[in-house]
Amino acid sequence: MMFLNLQGTVVNPLADYVPGKTGNLSNNELVMELREAAKDHFGRISFVYIDGIEHADRMKALGLYGGQERLPALALNTKDGKKLPFPEVLPINRDTILQFCADYLSGRMNNEDDAQEMAKKALMATNFNRKNQAQRQERKKPPEEKTGISEQWKKKDPVVQITSDNFEEIVLDEDRDVVVLFTSKECESCSHMTPYYKRLGRRFAELEQEEGGLGGGNVTVGVMDLADDTPPLGYATVLVADLPLVVLFPARDKGAPFRYYSGVSKVRPMMEWVAQHSGSGVVLPRLPHLNEEDRQLFKEQVREREEYKAKKKAEEEAAMEEEQRRLEEFRRQKKKARVEEEEENPHHHEEEGQGEEKHHNKVDRTIFSANSGGQEHDDDDGDIPTVASLDDNNEDGDGYSDYYEYDEL
């Protein structure tokens, strides 16, 4: 799958030309190279291209992090669930794409490390095709004072900012248990977890400063923003679930299988989870009840959360009301237009059958006699007996007439 910058362009799927540029390269040139490579793998690999800005979540799902600055980008998504990003050091042309696919199909490339090894060998080849070398911005590097673990703990916030540059120094420290929250600026759920995770970092920092506070164990609490950076080679496979993702790298056990937190986002359960899987021997003391400062902090967090929920609810209700108003206005305008059209083109219905005699509400009254076997008496002769006179002739003496008046409409 190829990710391009297609913003502001109109792509006709039936046309051969793809307008616009991604970085310093022509979109049409990149797509042509992709199509040429697709001819050699017809029926085995599907080749597609999409807008990397609009589908940034798809890029992250395939292990491509850094957003728009990393475009153009490619990745192979296999049917057995593997995500293999195309090495950024390679140019994007038919030859490199074919080599990338061939190494996977032959079984020589099964992970990102294999892909990087393939890229190194390709770059050393004498006949290497360097067409379409993308010029991407260098990944942001943290300031020097944030590269060391000792400097990090001197900061006011005990949660360490982890990047690809200091990942090995901090996360892979064999003497410390390291908890890492993988998050993103674009993740709304991550923002809800942030206050609890910061509290987790402060609590572990306080206990570590106390003598015997963690029973001799050592814990580092860190966070990595995947919108700006990505784990180094060999650890990209840790990202197997939706964000936010909390992972523990125990002391002296930094490799797979990784340990993921799946409980509620509260301080106490997370601390107990760290102690349970600790490699440095973390032992939690008897945790006291919240003091006054902690209670106020908790109330503030609850208040902020409730305000956020109320704001979201109000926005949703306002949106529904606006949609209802627009619908009513649409109906009113439609009705008004229909009335105006009828006034401009009135329908003239001429009465049919002019000259014919019309009879409205004409009633033929027929008198039936129950005792006479249903003989009819037409009212044309004017001798229609009344109900009272018929009652007088009632032979049964039951007070009811043996005649019934029937209106034939």
UniProtKB/TrEMBL annotation:
<dbReference type="GO" id="GO:0005789">
    <property type="term" value="C:endoplasmic reticulum membrane"/>
</dbReference>
<dbReference type="Pfam" id="PF04756">
    <property type="entry name" value="OST3_OST6"/>
</dbReference>
<comment type="similarity">
    <text>Belongs to the OST3/OST6 family.</text>
</comment>
<dbReference type="InterPro" id="IPR021149">
    <property type="entry name" value="OligosaccharylTrfase_OST3/OST6"/>
</dbReference>
<feature type="compositionally biased region" description="Basic and acidic residues">
    <location>
        <begin position="309"/>
        <end position="331"/>
    </location>
</feature>
<dbReference type="GO" id="GO:0003756">
    <property type="term" value="F:protein disulfide isomerase activity"/>
</dbReference>
<feature type="region of interest" description="Disordered">
    <location>
        <begin position="309"/>
        <end position="409"/>
    </location>
</feature>
<feature type="compositionally biased region" description="Basic and acidic residues">
    <location>
        <begin position="345"/>
        <end position="365"/>
    </location>
</feature>
<dbReference type="GO" id="GO:0034976">
    <property type="term" value="P:response to endoplasmic reticulum stress"/>
</dbReference>
<keyword id="KW-0676">Redox-active center</keyword>
<dbReference type="GO" id="GO:0005788">
    <property type="term" value="C:endoplasmic reticulum lumen"/>
</dbReference>
<keyword id="KW-1133">Transmembrane helix</keyword>
<keyword id="KW-0413">Isomerase</keyword>
<dbReference type="GO" id="GO:0006457">
    <property type="term" value="P:protein folding"/>
</dbReference>
<feature type="region of interest" description="Disordered">
    <location>
        <begin position="130"/>
        <end position="152"/>
    </location>
</feature>
<keyword id="KW-0256">Endoplasmic reticulum</keyword>
<comment type="similarity">
    <text>Belongs to the protein disulfide isomerase family.</text>
</comment>
<feature type="compositionally biased region" description="Acidic residues">
    <location>
        <begin position="392"/>
        <end position="409"/>
    </location>
</feature>
<keyword id="KW-0812">Transmembrane</keyword>
<protein>
    <recommendedName>
        <fullName>protein disulfide-isomerase</fullName>
        <ecNumber>5.3.4.1</ecNumber>
    </recommendedName>
</protein>
<feature type="compositionally biased region" description="Basic and acidic residues">
    <location>
        <begin position="136"/>
        <end position="152"/>
    </location>
</feature>
<keyword id="KW-0472">Membrane</keyword>
<dbReference type="InterPro" id="IPR036249">
    <property type="entry name" value="Thioredoxin-like_sf"/>
</dbReference>
